[in-house]
Write a sequence for this structure.
């Protein structure tokens, strides 16, 4: 093992910033990070072992204890659930003789849930040893079980199990107009980089990752900082459940995205760029690497780009299962080889980012749009959209509709038109912007896609009338509790309390005061949390409580106090031990029938 | 010319580079806090020091003071939120004050007194956490850890040892010790280290000293933490 690690760490030039990549390789080989590996890596990287343990325990894809030779993870997104995920994971569990969340005794296989894998338009989805499984069915599960029992390496499994389609359903300016290799960069050089920044400013482009910060302003801040080094980071963490457009953009439009990053680098004066790719998308790694290679060959990356005297390289770094790493300062921490814990701000990344240097972090789609503007100018982009939201937005549409997939819509489009385009009928409501966004009911479909009305990083999940809204609220609330980084008290404890409280109500143990208490807790977590995760973690509850108070009320018992657990259920162990099952060994949930 | 900001209407001078907490402390204005300690790099995690700066919630211990800021600190609403955050810290761990050696000298307890916390409000988590009594002189009772990282910072910044670290994500956050066994006895920690004395709660204790000062004669049995904090802030805040 030491030889393997020595070689691995040397390949990473003994850089502590590469810790995640090093741990990924060890995890892939041994299906966990053995303690001797930790000690050895700690020694050669001169890091405290606690730092490495901290990182391992932070990221979902690293383990201190052996996982199965076949590590199966099933996506726990609400959209997978709507496609029948629960029955499928049960089936897997039964056929493989392994309980969910455990490793089988012989070590052959482990099975667990994982947060949304970004394959919501072709779920139920999962991962086996990091390879994406799509469109799971009972038949496919039979096949998977057989393959595992044959001990066939995952690399040799039938390709159809791993087939991923892009499902681009509607294109507009960004996805239609072709962009010859290097054309945006050439146009930017010809125009001049300062003038190109002005052009981006005129286009009104705002960040596509969700928050909608003006892109030109961010780049201007970074450019103005006095520093010897600057960085450009492309945020491809895409962890918001229901979002998968960045996956498609990187699969089909990677040249444009990299070109946008290179234009940005020329404008701000950066020489190093990173693509932070979520671990779930590691299947894109080889393809993206070869595109980077081709761009270097074409003189569009590397030294003296297009003979203009500036240099820029892009490195791809993989995440390891942590939604919080989409938050820009947590992402930077992760790139530095640390736990993904959001930093205190100020200072902001534009002044103190990667390794303390001025850094811009932008979404994949933002770079795509910037390349477009660099090539075509700002006019046609700025002519589309609304006053405050220029251009188009690329949506990942999933849930209850006939044609889930990728749609590019002009900002200002009504939700109604979007629902029509994707063939959604009998709509109950739409979750816009993912769990951290807003739920709107079918009465609000005249509202518009826009930063000033309904903003979204791309997630657009449709629920029809057969759905129970509380299922999604529960799913989302559990998601946040699972993904909270745990740094600050209000979110670390608050998201777990929200989870307990919503479970209590949904399971029918809620009583009169519980809704008020729930709302109070929501406000506290929202207003007191350190970062966007905690600040939005209560949104699923708040936005549905506002629209469907009766849905919650109906679940409450008509008593003023109800124990937070099932009294009779709690006696089950005692009954088993005493081998009793008579009436006196059961307890009614007290007061249930009283007003 | 002195720069100033206002806290609850009171003008307060500050110097460039100071945080709101530092400016407030220098002006003898108490802002409740647990993870902050004047001698160590601020952490900004407990969120007890949240103040409203020009209408926005900010952590006073990390947020830079700036000219003309209007800061709200000692208001009913803010203190109500602080009380809830303190309650969160109580229910998250296992804090049985009457049987804790630290009672009366515990800053978590003292902040709870200060904020008039009378119950837990939230359901208790009753986490299962082990104790580490392996070290001859120092005891860790993880049940009382609030993840403030003061021991981590004290060990790194003053003792130059790096004995402690936080690990895990979300509600699984926990304190770990930098030894192959994970046990404190194998670490470089000695009882004189700052890290052994910095814990605001009873999570890190010096063995056999628990009752040298009888209960009832301890610091917060007689003084509000707001006074103690301001009179000892620049010297020794820990016991
Ligand atoms: C919890 C959390 C997760 C986030 N995830 C992403 C993400 O996956 N992709 C992304 O582009 N931005 C994400 N963001 C927003 C980023 O912090 C940042 O604002 C964005 O990358 C900036 O790029 P833009 O200006 O181009 O939108 C996330 C923010 C939070 C708080
Ligand atoms: S709000 Fe949540 S995710 Fe953000 S820093 Fe606090 S604990 Fe971490
Ligand atoms: S042991 Fe004490 S000082 Fe260390 S993190 Fe826990 S509460 Fe803070
Ligand atoms: S004292 Fe400021 S966050 Fe803890």
């Amino acid at each position: 093992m030491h030889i393997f690690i020595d070689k691995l760490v040397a390949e990473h030039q003994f850089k502590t910033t590469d810790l995640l990549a090093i741990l990924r390789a060890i995890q892939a080989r041994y299906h966990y990070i053995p303690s001797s590996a930790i000690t050895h890596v700690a020694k050669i990287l001169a890091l405290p072992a606690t730092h490495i343990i901290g990182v391992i325990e932070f990221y979902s894809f690293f383990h201190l204890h052996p996982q199965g030779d076949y590590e199966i993870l099933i996506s726990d997104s609400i959209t997978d659930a709507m496609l029948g995920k629960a029955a499928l994971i049960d089936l897997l569990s039964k056929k493989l003789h392994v309980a969910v969340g455990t490793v089988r005794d012989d070590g052959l296989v482990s099975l667990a849930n994982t947060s949304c894998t970004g394959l919501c338009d072709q779920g139920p989805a999962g991962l086996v040893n990091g390879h994406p499984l799509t469109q799971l069915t009972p038949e496919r599960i039979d096949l998977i079980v057989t393959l595992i029992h044959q001990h066939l390496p995952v690399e040799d499994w039938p390709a159809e199990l791993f087939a991923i389609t892009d499902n681009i359903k509607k294109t507009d300016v960004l996805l239609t107009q072709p962009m010859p290799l290097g054309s945006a960069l050439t146009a930017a050089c010809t125009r001049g980089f300062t003038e190109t920044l002005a052009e981006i400013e005129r286009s009104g482009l705002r960040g596509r990752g969700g928050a909608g910060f003006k892109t030109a302003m961010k780049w201007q801040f970074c450019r103005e900082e006095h520093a010897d080094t600057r960085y450009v980071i492309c945020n491809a963490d895409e962890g918001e459940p229901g979002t998968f457009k960045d996956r498609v953009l990187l699969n089909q439009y990677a040249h444009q995205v990299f070109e946008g990053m290179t234009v940005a680098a020329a404008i701000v004066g950066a020489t190093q760029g990173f693509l932070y790719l979520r671990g779930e998308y590691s299947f894109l790694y080889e393809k993206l690497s070869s595109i980077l290679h081709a761009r270097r060959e074409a003189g569009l990356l590397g030294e003296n780009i297009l003979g203009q005297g500036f240099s820029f390289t892009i490195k791809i770094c993989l995440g390891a299962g942590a939604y919080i790493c989409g938050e820009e300062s947590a992402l930077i921490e992760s790139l530095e080889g640390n736990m993904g814990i959001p930093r205190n701000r100020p200072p902001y990344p534009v002044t103190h980012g990667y390794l303390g240097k001025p850094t811009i972090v932008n979404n994949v789609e933002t770079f795509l749009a910037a390349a477009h503007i660099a090539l075509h100018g700002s006019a046609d982009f700025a002519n589309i959209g609304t006053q405050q939201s220029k251009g188009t937005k690329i949506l990942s549409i999933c849930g209850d509709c006939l044609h889930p997939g990728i749609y590019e819509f002009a900002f200002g489009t009504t939700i109604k038109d979007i629902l029509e385009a994707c063939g959604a009928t009998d709509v109950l409501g739409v979750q816009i912007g993912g769990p951290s966004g807003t739920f709107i009911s079918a009465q609000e479909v005249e509202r518009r896609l826009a930063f000033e009305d309904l903003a979204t990083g791309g997630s657009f999940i449709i629920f029809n009338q057969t759905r129970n809204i509380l299922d999604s609220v529960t799913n989302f609330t559990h998601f946040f509790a699972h993904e909270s980084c745990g740094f600050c008290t209000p979110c670390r404890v608050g998201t777990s309390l929200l989870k307990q409280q919503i479970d209590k109500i949904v399971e029918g143990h809620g009583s009169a005061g519980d809704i008020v208490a729930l709302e109070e807790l929501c406000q506290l977590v929202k207003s007191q949390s350190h970062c966007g995760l905690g600040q939005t973690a209560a949104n699923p509850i708040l936005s549905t409580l506002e629209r469907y108070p009766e849905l919650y009320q109906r679940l409450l018992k008509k008593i003023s106090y109800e124990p937070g657990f099932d009294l009779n259920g709690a006696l089950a162990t005692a009954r088993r031990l005493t081998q009793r099952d008579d009436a006196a060994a059961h307890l009614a949930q007290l007061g249930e029938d009283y007003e | 010319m002195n720069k100033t900001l206002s806290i609850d209407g009171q003008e307060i001078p500050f110097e460039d580079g100071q945080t709101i907490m530092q400016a407030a402390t220098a002006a003898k204005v108490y802002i409740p806090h647990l993870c902050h300690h004047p001698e160590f790099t601020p952490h900004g995690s407990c969120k007890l020091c949240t103040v409203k700066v020009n209408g926005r919630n900010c952590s006073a211990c990390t947020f830079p003071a700036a000219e003309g800021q209007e800061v709200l600190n000692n208001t009913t609403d803010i203190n109500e939120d602080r009380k809830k955050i303190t309650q969160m810290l109580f229910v998250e761990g296992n804090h049985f004050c009457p049987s804790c050696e630290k009672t009366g000298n515990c800053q978590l307890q003292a902040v709870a007194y200060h904020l008039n916390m009378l119950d837990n409000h939230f359901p208790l988590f009753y986490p299962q956490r082990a104790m580490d009594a392996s070290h001859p002189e120092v005891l860790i009772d993880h049940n009382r850890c609030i993840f403030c990282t003061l021991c981590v910072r004290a060990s790194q910044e003053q003792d130059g040892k790096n004995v402690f670290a936080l690990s895990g994500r979300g509600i699984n956050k926990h304190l770990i010790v930098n030894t192959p066994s994970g046990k404190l006895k194998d670490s470089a920690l000695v009882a004189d280290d700052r890290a052994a004395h910095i814990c605001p709660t009873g999570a890190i204790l010096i063995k056999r000293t628990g009752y040298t000062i009888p209960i009832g004669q301890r610091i917060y049995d007689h003084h509000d933490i707001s006074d103690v904090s301001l009179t000892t802030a620049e010297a020794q805040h820990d016991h």
In short: The first strand of chain B starts at residue 3 and ends at 7. Residues 234-239 of chain B have pLDDT under 50 and may be disordered. The domain at 3-74 of chain B is CATH 3.10.20.740 (Ubiquitin-like (UB roll)). The pocket of iron/sulfur cluster (ligand 3) is lined by residues B 145-151, 175, 198-199, 201, 203-204 (CB under 6 Å).
